[in-house]
Design goal:
With 547 residues, this protein is of the alpha/beta class. It folds into three domains: 31-220, 3-Layer(aba) Sandwich (Rossmann fold); 266-385, AICAR transformylase, duplication domain (Cytidine Deaminase, domain 2); 416-539, Cytidine Deaminase, domain 2 (3-Layer(aba) Sandwich), CATH 3.40.140.
Length: 547
């Protein structure tokens, strides 16, 4: 018997060498038996995949725990890893695939004679296919009731180890960490050139996945060590940042046609596109700004944006009235812009909107009649909002040369209780309504930002100028162009008035109240100017720059 076993092993080794061209013959290695190791948390498509490997390609399946049971119940021949290694699972399953017979089968180079000799001498079958996806650590720690112990036990050790071993040896091993790739592998198995290219792609995908997995674990542990409560852990400043999001969509180009671009992450999960052309880079930026703006309001509200700046906004008892007031602010800027509503867009509103050209309309829902009208504009993008932006939207990341800037998003809820009236005259109730509305809008306008408002509507918007006075002049000019009187209006400024001249100009234009952060060394001069003109002025104590 020992002699027969030695003869068998020698024959197996010689065949392996021969197939590698080490003794002569072909150039592609094929083991005596084809082994695939399948151990998955997400079992989507795994039975079909394993069946194809067994019945169409002659693979012998190795597996563990629940995956092995699933495959066996489907009538597939499967060998438990513990039977394969001759070593039992132990320590509540913490130890099962961490064995030389597994990792040797994955890491053995098929082009090296000494590797093959060592595999043969130690009875290590070569494993050519690995399908592993990881314990759902990210989903586990998102549960509000998760305990620290639960989180720790959902840290996968064997899975990442197998994935990394297989990915390192991707020249010979096909490694899959995502069920969507099962069909891709099966389709490529008959084409060696396609298989080699696919293996490289799959290896890259593995390292991207294990990198994001490790980052999720490190982020969780970092939060546990923090001294602050959970909110600060979510919206804090980590010791390192990890940007590793899957590509969601290639874009035609970036801000300009000569710039390549793509969208990454889960942005599209927040929306459903009902019709129209693919979203552009600029569309996505505008949609993001629009969603943040409309989130400020509870009453029926319309926002109109261009280049991420609100150019008109209004709240009313119904969306149609809100639209008419928002559109009146600036009838030119909405051309090619973004319209956002916080209630269902009905037929009457659709009839009004369809008279102008815009790129995107966003709403929670569109009525059947609205869809029929707007559907005639085939290129018009109609978007419904599926969910509020997730926790990741609490922070903003910007690239700078050789680095990144990270900050909390300016999403602090407006609390009038923290505001301070600094003038002799208190705002009237009507002025308060205007002040609060203007303050909600101005924080979404590029600095230096000025908004004139009356009631719950904008009258003039000035954005992005080097001088606050220039922004105010533009806002006044815009109101004049629209035929809107500023008499009795309020002025909202995203930052303090550095000199009294800006406030005086607003008063001359017809403003009777102002809202601003305060904090200038010349605040007393500005307050005095307001008092001289009978204006009411409110300090918010909070600046809202948007560079």
């Amino acid at each position: 018997m020992p002699h027969q076993k030695a003869a068998f092993q020698q024959s197996k080794l010689e065949r392996a060498f021969s197939l590698q061209g080490l003794i002569g013959g072909g150039t592609n290695y094929t083991s005596m038996e084809n082994y695939a190791l399948i151990s998955v948390s997400d079992k989507t498509g795994v039975v079909e995949f394993a069946r194809a490997l067994v019945e169409e390609h002659g693979y012998h399946i190795l597996s563990t725990g629940g995956t092995a049971r699933t495959l066996a119940e489907a009538g597939l021949p499967v060998t438990e890893v513990s039977d394969h290694t001759g070593f039992p699972e132990m320590m509540e399953g913490r130890i099962k695939t961490l064995h030389p017979k597994i990792h040797g089968g994955l890491l053995c180079r098929r082009d090296k004679q000494d590797h093959l000799e060592q595999a043969n001498a130690n009875d290590i079958p070569l494993i050519d296919v690995v399908a592993v996806n990881l314990y759902p650590f990210e989903e586990t720690v998102e549960r509000p009731d998760v305990t620290f112990e639960e989180a720790i036990e959902n840290i996968d050790i064997g899975g990442p180890s197998m994935l990394r071993s297989a990915a390192k040896n991707h020249a010979a091993v096909s490694v899959l960490c995502d069920p969507v790739d099962y069909t891709r592998l099966l389709d490529a198995m008959g084409d060696q050139s396609a298989l080699r290219k696919l293996r490289q792609e799959l290896a890259l995908k593995v390292y991207q996945r294990t990198s994001s997995y490790d980052y999720a674990i490190s982020s969780f542990l970092e939060k546990q060590l923090g001294d602050e409560p959970d909110l600060d852990a979510i919206s804090g400043v980590p010791s390192s940042i990890h940007i590793n999001s899957p590509r969601a969509q290639k874009l035609r180009y970036g801000e300009n046609p000569h710039q390549k671009a793509a969208l990454y992450g889960q942005f599209l999960e927040n929306f459903e596109q009902l019709q129209g052309k693919e979203l552009s880079y600029n569309n996505i930026l505008d949609i993001s700004a629009a969603v943040y703006l409309i989130g400020e309001f509870k009453k029926p509200t319309i926002g109109i944006l261009k280049h991420t700046n609100p150019c008109g906004a209004a709240s009313a008892d119904n969306l149609l009235d809100a639209w008419k007031m928002a559109f009146e602010t600036d009838r030119q800027a909405p051309f090619g812009g973004i319209i956002v509503a916080n209630q269902t867009v009905a037929q009457d509103l659709a009839e009004e909107i369809q008279q102008i050209f815009c790129e995107v309309i966003i709403a929670p829902e569109f009525s059947t009649g609205a869809l029929e009208i707007l559907g005639k504009k085939k290129n018009l993008r109609l978007m419904t909002v599926n969910s509020s932006p997730g926790a990741s939207s609490l922070q903003e990341v910007r690239a700078v040369p050789d680095g990144y800037l990270l900050q909390d998003r300016d999403g602090v809820r407006i609390n009038p209780a923290n505001f301070k009236v600094v003038t002799e005259r208190e705002p009237t109730s009507e002025e308060w309504d205007s002040l609060l509305f203007g303050w909600k809008v101005v924080r979404h306008v590029k600095s230096n930002a000025i908004v004139y408002a009356k009631g719950e509507r904008t009258l003039g918007v000035g954005a992005g100028q080097m001088s606050r006075v220039d922004s105010s002049k533009i806002a006044v000019w815009k109101a004049g162009e629209a035929g809107l009187s500023l008499n009795g209006s309020i002025i909202a400024s995203d930052a303090f008035f550095p000199f009294a001249d800006g406030l005086i100009a607003a008063a001359d234009a017809g403003a009777v109240a102002a809202i601003q952060p305060g904090g200038s060394v010349r605040d007393e001069e500005v307050i005095a100017a307001a008092n001289e003109r009978g204006m009411a002025m409110v300090f918010t104590g909070m600046r809202h720059f948007r560079h």
